[in-house]
C-alpha cells in the first residue's frame, strides 16, 4: 500500500517551483508515476508531497524543427513518441528503444523524461539519447541550464538534478545525414522486461569513412557511451578487424553486475555478441 501523501497539480512552472520550494526534498515530482509509485509503495523512496506535473502545458511539447532537432517535453508519454512517424523515420534508434519499454498500458502513462530522471542503469531510452547526443533542459526558480545527456547520470538512480530543479524537456539534435540507428535489447522474456543488456548504435559516413557511436544499458552504474570502442572501430584494418577491436574495447570498459536477470559473466558475453551484431548491421546498411 502507498503511504499517506499530500498531492498537488500545478498548472504553471511558477506554481511548481513554489511547491518545490515549500517542501524541498519532501516533495517528489510525479509524471507517469510508473517508477515513482512503485518505489513509494515498496518504501524504497520517501515523500510527503506528490507534485503532479501533467497539467503544466509548457511541459507538453513534442516538436521537430528542421536544423534544431526534436524537443520532447517532460509530460510527453512513450505512446506519443511511438505514434510519431517522424521520430520513427528520423530517429529510429530512439523509436526502437521506446518500443521496448513496458507494455501498452505502461506506455500510455510513462514518460521519456521520467525514464531518464529515474536514472536506472537499465533505462532503455538512455543509450539511444546518448548516441543521438541529446541535451537535457533543466529549469528552476533560479533560471535554466542545458546539460549534455552524458553528463546527466551520476550513479545508480542519481542525476545532476539539484533540489528545486525540474527537467523541462530533452532536445535531440538533427542526426548526421544518412545515419542508421538501432537498439538491440536482450530480455529474459520476449514481451516486457528490463534489459539484461541493451546496446544502441548510430552509424554514419564522414566523407567515405564509416563512423559509429555506441552506448549501453545495464552494464554499469549508469547508462554508458563507450567512445573508446567507437575510436577503436575507426582505426585501420579490415572491417572484421575493426569490429573485433571495438567489441574487445567495449567489453573491457563495462562493469556488469550479477542480479536476477543474469550473471555478470553472461552480461559481458552479451556485450560482445550484441556489439558485434550491431556493428555488422551498420557495415551492411550505412
Ligand atoms: C511493469 C513495469 C515495466 C517496466 N519496463 C521498463 C522497461 O522495459 N524499460 C525501462 O527503461 N523502464 C521500464 N520501467 C520503468 C518505468 O516505466 C520507466 O522508467 C518510465 O519511463 C518512467 O516514466 P514515468 O513518467 O512513469 O516516471 P515517474 O515514475 O513519474 O518518475 C520517475 C522519477 O523521475 C522523477 N521525475 C519525473 N519527471 C521529472 C522531471 N520532469 N523533472 C525531474 N524529475 C522528474 C520522479 O520524481 C521520479 O523520481 C518499467 C516499470 C514497470 C512498473
Task: Describe the fold and architecture.
With 286 residues, this protein is of the alpha+beta class. It has 3 domains: 6-52, 2-Layer Sandwich (Uridine Diphospho-n-acetylenolpyruvylglucosamine Reductase, domain 2); 57-172, Uridine Diphospho-n-acetylenolpyruvylglucosamine Reductase, domain 3 (2-Layer Sandwich), CATH 3.30.465.10; 185-285, Enolase-like, domain 1, CATH 3.30.390.50. 35% of the residues lie in helices and 25% in strands. It has a 5-stranded antiparallel beta sheet with strand order 4-5-10-6-7. Strands 11-12-13-14 form a 4-stranded antiparallel beta sheet, with helices on both faces. Strands 1-3-2 form a 3-stranded parallel beta sheet, covered by helices on one side. Helix 5 packs antiparallel against helix 8 and helix 10 (239-253) runs antiparallel to helix 11. The chain is globular, with a radius of gyration of 19 Å. The termini are far apart. The structure holds flavin-adenine dinucleotide. Flavin-adenine dinucleotide (FAD) is lined by residues 28-36, 38, 74, 100-102, 106, 109-111, 113-115, 117-118, 122-124, 161, 166-167, 192, 194.
Strand and helix layout:
Blueprint: E1 6-8, H1 13-23, E2 27-30, H2 36-41, E3 49-52, E4 62-65, E5 69-73, H3 78-82, H4 85-90, H5 92-99, H6 104-109, H7 112-117, H8 125-131, E6 135-140, E7 143-148, E8 153-155, E9 158-159, E10 166-172, E11 180-186, E12 197-206, E13 209-217, E14 224-225, H9 227-234, H10 239-253, H11 264-285
Parallel strand pairs: 1-3, 2-3
Antiparallel strand pairs: 4-5, 5-10, 6-7, 6-10, 8-9, 11-12, 12-13, 13-14
Helix pairs in contact: 5-8, 9-10, 10-11
The protein binds flavin-adenine dinucleotide.
Flavin-adenine dinucleotide (FAD) binds next to strand 2, helix 2, helix 6, helix 7 and strand 10.
Amino acid at each position: 500500500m502507498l503511504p499517506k501523501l499530500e498531492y498537488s497539480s500545478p498548472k504553471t512552472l511558477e506554481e511548481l517551483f513554489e511547491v518545490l520550494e515549500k517542501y524541498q526534498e519532501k516533495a517528489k515530482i510525479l509524471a507517469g508515476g510508473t517508477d515513482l509509485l512503485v518505489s513509494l509503495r515498496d518504501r524504497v523512496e520517501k515523500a510527503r508531497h506528490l507534485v503532479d506535473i501533467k497539467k503544466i502545458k509548457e511541459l507538453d511539447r513534442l516538436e521537430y524543427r528542421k536544423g534544431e532537432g526534436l524537443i520532447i517535453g517532460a509530460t510527453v508519454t512513450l505512446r506519443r513518441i511511438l505514434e510519431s512517424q517522424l521520430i520513427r523515420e528520423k530517429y529510429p534508434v530512439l523509436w526502437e528503444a521506446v518500443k521496448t519499454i513496458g507494455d501498452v498500458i505502461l506506455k500510455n502513462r510513462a514518460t521519456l523524461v521520467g525514464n531518464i530522471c529515474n536514472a536506472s542503469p537499465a533505462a532503455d531510452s538512455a543509450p539511444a539519447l546518448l548516441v543521438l547526443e541529446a541535451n537535457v533542459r533543466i529549469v528552476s526558480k533560479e533560471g535554466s541550464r542545458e546539460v549534455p545527456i552524458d553528463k546527466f547520470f551520476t550513479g545508480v538512480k542519481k542525476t545532476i538534478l539539484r533540489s528545486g530543479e525540474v527537467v523541462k524537456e530533452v532536445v535531440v539534435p538533427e542526426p548526421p545525414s544518412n545515419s542508421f540507428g538501432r537498439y538491440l535489447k536482450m530480455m529474459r522474456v520476449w514481451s516486457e522486461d528490463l534489459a539484461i543488456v541493451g546496446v544502441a548504435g548510430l552509424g554514419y559516413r564522414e566523407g567515405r569513412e564509416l563512423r559509429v557511436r555506441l552506448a549501453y544499458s545495464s552494464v554499469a552504474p549508469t547508462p554508458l557511451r563507450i567512445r573508446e570502442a567507437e575510436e577503436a572501430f575507426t582505426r585501420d584494418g579490415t572491417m572484421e578487424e575493426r569490429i573485433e577491436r571495438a567489441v574487445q574495447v567495449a567489453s573491457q570498459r563495462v562493469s556488469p553486475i550479477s542480479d536476477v536477470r543474469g550473471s555478470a559473466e553472461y552480461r559481458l558475453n552479451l556485450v560482445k555478441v550484441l556489439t558485434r551484431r550491431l556493428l555488422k548491421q551498420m557495415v551492411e546498411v550505412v
